[in-house]
Specification:
13 helices, alpha/beta, 30% helix, seven-stranded mixed β-sheet, five-stranded antiparallel β-sheet, single chain
Length: 450
């Protein structure tokens, strides 16, 4: 049998592509050596958000008196939190499997490699069996990056995978890297009483997000006891001790656990890309706006491209690839990809930041309002002010970026994504009716500042 589409990897790109292609009537085979769902579902997005929600409930319960709720001696069970996390993951993995069956996708639980491209199609080897396909989608994801820090080969460090398997809450935790993953784990463990220290090489956390918003989150976390070592370069690891240089001074910090969270790299090793000559770029697979590689019939999506390492980007790229295979007009756009940090408070952003607009030479107008201008936010947040920032083009007033800190901005940012995709102007946004009272009204209220 010749499959219309073979997919390497069962993460947010792979299983979405399989479902969409199966729904469209294509014969699909998906290769996934581990569990369906990939890193996102099994050891990334879903388990971390499950734990973040548990710690948010614990945080609210511990400070319920602010809202007139008295709950003395609030405690938590880390083992039960972890058990619930595993239960949620298992349920969602099962759901993905059911969806594959529903749409006729053949799932092969073996590591697959690309063998060759012939006149009949692309040959894939998995286990002891060969498969032939007309089209191939490579979406093998990414893995934690491990930099060549002196002493790291003998150091007992954790990555985002191992830390999700801890059986007890560490008394102290040093996190190397102040990106999204590191910040979210800092939130989880600091809420549970861990003394958390974050070492970041740059002058601010959450690189790529709005710097003012990032600074506000750092300030809020500092008040919660998290210590930040910015502009600090890790120079060595020894057991549970991290050595780092800051402003020319060498420092050391020893903790119960060390979390290494300095980014991720594309999984391209051993899958046979070289056998058919797939072109690489910046450590990932190079693709065009249709998610095509340089080899006809071969596509790539998700983290393996090394470009936008987000689950929702991966899923959308997968849809674009499948649409191109099926002859449906579509192309990938990256100007309205949202970024979210699921901490308490949440951080969300989409489009241009002030920094990126300046770097591109785009003239902008910026206005912002504290979240407390939305009545619903005041009703549900006792002390934190929050912030909503809207960035518009100076000449036409088109919405170019929106950045927020405050709950539940993760559930609100899609409206800004739609506004940017639809090329809404500030004046058009003012004419949209928002429900009252909602926190989302802050988006519209900020527009009225222009």
């Amino acid at each position: 049998m010749i499959f219309d589409l073979a997919i390497l990897g069962g993460g947010p790109a792979g299983y979405v592509a399989a479902e969409r292609a199966g729904r469209g009537g294509l014969k699909v085979i998906l290769f996934e050596p581990k569990n369906l769902g990939g890193v996102c579902l099994n050891e990334g997005c879903i388990p971390t958000k499950t734990l973040l929600y548990s710690t948010k409930i614990y945080d609210y319960a511990s400070h319920g008196s602010k809202y007139g709720i008295i709950a003395p001696e609030v405690t938590f069970s880390f083992s039960e939190m972890m058990a619930r996390k595993n239960k949620v993951v298992k349920k969602l993995v099962s759901g993905v499997g059911s969806k594959m069956k529903k749409h006729g996708v053949l799932v092969v639980n073996h590591f697959a490699t690309i063998s060759e491209k012939t006149k009949d199609g692309i040959k894939i080897e998995a286990g002891s069996t060969s498969y032939l396909c007309k089209n191939l989608l490579v979406c093998t994801g990414s893995e934690s990056m491990v930099p060549p820090i002196p002493g790291i080969e003998s150091c007992e460090f954790l990555t985002s995978r191992e830390i999700l398997q801890l059986e007890s809450v560490p008394k102290s935790l040093t996190i190397i890297g102040g990106g999204v993953i590191g910040i979210e784990f800092a939130n989880i463990f600091a809420t549970l009483g861990t003394k958390v220290t974050i070492i970041e090489m740059l002058d601010e956390i959450l690189t790529g997000m709005d710097s003012e918003i990032s600074a506000l989150l750092r300030k809020e976390f500092t008040q919660k006891g998290i210590e930040f070592k910015l502009k600090s370069r890790v120079t060595g690891l020894n057991g549970k001790t991290v050595t780092f240089e800051s402003n020319g001074v060498i420092n050391e910090i020893t903790s119960d656990q060390i979390l290494l969270s300095v980014g991720r790299k594309a999984n391209i090793k051993g899958i046979g890309l070289e056998n058919i000559g797939i072109e690489l770029n910046r450590g990932g697979i190079k693709i065009d706006e249709n998610c095509r590689t340089n080899i006809p019939g071969v596509y790539a999506a998700g983290d393996v491209t090394g470009f936008s390492l987000l689950a929702h980007t991966a899923s959308r790229e997968a849809e674009v690839a499948v649409n191109h295979i099926m002859g449906v007009a579509d192309k990938m756009r990256y100007h309205a990809i949202p970024g979210v940090v699921y901490t308490n408070p949440e951080v969300s952003g989409v489009g241009l930041t002030e920094e990126s607009a300046k770097a591109k030479g785009i003239e902008i107008v910026v206005h912002k309002l504290p979240m407390v201008y939305a009545g619903r936010f005041v009703a549900e947040n006792d002390t934190f002010q929050g912030l909503c920032k809207v960035i518009a083009g100076k000449k036409y007033g088109e919405i170019l970026g929106v950045h927020m800190i405050g709950n539940p901005s993760s559930e609100m940012i899609y409206g800004a994504c739609m506004a940017i995709e639809a090329e809404f102007t500030i004046e058009q946004l003012k004419q949209v009716v928002f429900p009252h009272p909602t926190v989302s009204e802050i988006f519209r209220e900020t527009a009225w500042e222009f």
